[in-house]
């Protein structure tokens, strides 16, 4: 795949049926380097299934997944289940998943605000702490593309805001692309560049400001959420097709 625009991943007409039931129907998706794309949709819309196809865990009935050459993917799953009697510290959990030196481990945990948890048992962590450790595990791969499945699962409202800010900071600092699944419309619509509204097919897609007033979006979710004051800055904009256009001097601001 040619990568003249920083395109990291593209799905083309992905369709999949499971047990005779249509799960995905002609899904097109693109994620560029340095951009956050969020999948939203009701339960059963196919969001996590699409991610499993992208990760190569499921084979679609038709369509293609195109990755830019040498693209490294870091994946943060929706939930983590650990046997409560299994002695597993944060350090052990992270080094089981990815071999790394002590300095890299500390650096990554510091970035996600969890260095103090290094020797804690995983079973004692709060929801927000667990999500930060899962994010650290994904970041240890030095990913070009981060795939985050419900990254604020089990986190209180104030913690959700902090995690979304952290995700935006990671995008800015590392220049990676981020594909995120979320049902938290109130915050996520102000924390993303592009939204793809999924209900087995693509109902609508584009910049959050256009999606939130789209009739297909309103039919699924009702009145569009009021965006939070949080905003993010980056050094590119998008044309009418959603393609990234690099800006020479000024970043744009989404809020």
Structural class given helices, strands, pairing? alpha/beta
- Measured by DSSP, the beta-strand proportion falls in 25-35%
- The CATH superfamily of the largest domain appears as P-loop containing nucleotide triphosphate hydrolases
> What name is given to the CATH topology of the largest domain?
Rossmann fold
List the secondary-structure elements in sequence, H or E: EEEHEEHHHEHEHEEHHEEEE
Report Rg: 18 Å
Total of DSSP H or I helical runs spanning 4+ residues:
8
Instruction: Give me the CATH architecture of the largest domain, please.
Output: 3-Layer(aba) Sandwich
For the terminal residues, how far apart are their CA atoms?
Answer: 33 Å
Low-confidence stretches: 227-255
- Assembly type: single chain
Mean pLDDT metric: 83
Q: What does the overall shape look like?
A: globular
Count structural domains. 2
The proportion of residues forming helix, as a percent range, comes to 25-40%
